[in-house]
């Protein structure tokens, strides 16, 4: 039995590299068959808002996130409070091929896991 | 118990680098073992052989190296994060045609699979922010 | 008159709040990088009534709709803003 | 039960507030590094009633007096806390 | 005529190196006879609280700050609101040999200067 | 007008590094000049010759170097901040007895006096956070 893993994605894209390097770590876990579940919380919910970063010469993190379901990462949560505080509706925060779930109580989700990776 | 430490902080930039070292010592002093220390994000700068702090500031590199020697620690630097930020082994420097290598002795470059494995297999994982 | 530049999300850090506490009448504010999240209509902090600018490259990158009373600018206009103001104060991390 | 670790000043960043929004009954909180500024008596955020720990090295470094209802601990006790809890979540930057 | 300079010190000591590297920059300006005035604001006011960082293996920033007046840096301000919000009294925030002034309106101080260095 | 830019952000870590480069281009395109770009704090990593971003990410180093060549830019890396963090010129590496040098062509190591001078003498100073 290996550990269950939650990836906690807390940072907005582009301002720092936490979001990008978090995604890379999640994909690496999935490639090793250690498929994490993913919680977008705090400014991390902005990662799921459609983006167009050409003018700042970055790759679209939003587009790269769409790869998650293809790698078997299908349990994806969004903190409801975080989305609401930022004026975002669930319909604006979507991943193709994944059933993104709104979460009211992040604390009780977190404690279900053995390990939590923070990004 | 087996601990894995994930270090995001660069020395002489964020305190997390020093905190991780102190925590590692406390883990070992408590009789537990360290499965791996994984340096990610800016934390990869902990593996730079060129960092030269002033005499009156702590030298984290030498302390990590001493700990590595005395406890055969696995000090893994994420290769992708390190390439971007300019910490290279001899073989990486050759492969990428860069003019020099600067990965410190005692540290190993490896992929994110090492983080996945450590997360899956160690009893506890503690992250040290940047 | 001072030009204040804020690059931090208003949800994640105190930079914008700290800036507004040191804002004087007639100063200008420029939101860049993650600071553009404060330029949305329902942002958590109330911005000054005049002279609030938003770097459009950063807003576009993040998919942010800029509130109508703010002024989106490009990099060249940013340079002009710097010429027009002194000192220039950055609020970051 | 989760051990939450916060290393950011409650005045400068959202890490502590974010952590408290994800705190469940029975969880423990450890304040380290700049997080110890939340351990003062008149800190800006209300902490949980039980199981709040403060790394004493960091509080002493900063000249902070820890509120009497919190528990100051050393590095060895931190390791024990980690043994007693799972998962361990760090809130930073 | 050279520019007047204000150093804005906004960060707590030790968590990041902004405070230490800010002090070094201020001393370097003073050594070049470009003596800045200094404003401690936001978490920067914590720099002036007496410290004992031996247990984290750091040099005392507080002690090093005491060198400011010796280098001719004598106009030192503390943002009153920042101190009050943190429950700090002026008597706890002192530099030997300097006349530390509480400041009610940082915005009007800032605009008196040609250049502002942020740390 | 003469601009000085102070850069605190490391590339591939904080956006400030890229923003500073874009601003520098806009300053020059506007017909103004750049007195100095001073890399301080984590910003000194902009001067690392070893940073090797993936092909599909922007290469800030080459862009700074191109700008330096075309406009004779003064790209000064704070020597004290760089020593601590492990960015060394050949002569510094020799002096400090470190195994390699990694300061990129086009960048110069110098003391904080260069920041003081630039602050005192340029018309505008703009800082780019980390």
Quick overview of this protein structure:
The complex is a heterohexamer, with 2 copies of chain A (119 residues), 2 copies of chain B (130 residues) and 2 copies of chain C (93 residues). Chain A has 119 residues and is of the alpha/beta class.
Description:
The complex is a heterohexamer, with two copies of chain A (119 residues), two copies of chain B (130 residues) and two copies of chain C (93 residues). Chain A has 119 residues and is an alpha/beta fold. Chain A has four helices and five strands. Chain A has a five-stranded parallel sheet with strand order 4-3-2-1-5. In chain A, helix 3 links the parallel strand 3 and strand 4. The longest helix of chain A is centred in the N-terminal third of the chain and has 14 residues. The model of chain A has no long low-confidence stretch (mean pLDDT 96). Chain B has 130 residues and is an alpha/beta fold. In chain B, 37% of the residues lie in helices and 20% in strands. The mean pLDDT of chain B is 97. Chain C has a single domain, classed as Hypothetical Protein Ychn, Chain: A (3-Layer(aba) Sandwich), CATH 3.40.1260.10. Chain C is 26% helix and 20% strand. Chain C has three helices and five strands, in the order βαββαβαβ. In chain C, strands 4-3-2-1-5 form a five-stranded parallel sheet. The relative contact order of chain C is 0.27. At the C-F interface, helix 3 and strand 5 of C face helix 1 and strand 5 of F.
CATH superfamily of chain B: DsrEFH-like
Number of domains of chain C: 1
Q: Helical amount among residues of chain B, as a percent range?
A: 25-40%
Most strands sheet of chain C: 5 strands, parallel
List keywords for this structure.
heterohexamer, B: 130 residues, alpha/beta, Hypothetical Protein Ychn, Chain: A, 5-stranded parallel sheet, 5 helices, 37% helix, C: 93 residues, 3 helices, 5 strands, globular
Outline the secondary-structure elements:
The complex is a heterohexamer, with two copies of chain A (119 residues), two copies of chain B (130 residues) and two copies of chain C (93 residues).
Chain A: E1 5-9, H1 18-31, E2 37-40, H2 61-65, E3 75-79, H3 80-85, E4 99-103, H4 106-110, E5 115-118
Parallel strand pairs in A: 1-2, 1-5, 2-3, 3-4
Chain B: E1 2-7, H1 16-29, E2 33-39, H2 60-71, E3 75-78, H3 79-85, H4 90-95, E4 107-110, H5 113-121, E5 124-128
Parallel strand pairs in B: 1-2, 1-5, 2-3, 3-4
Helix pairs in contact in B: 1-2
Chain C: E1 3-6, H1 15-21, E2 28-31, E3 52-55, H2 56-62, E4 71-73, H3 75-84, E5 88-91
Parallel strand pairs in C: 1-2, 1-5, 2-3, 3-4
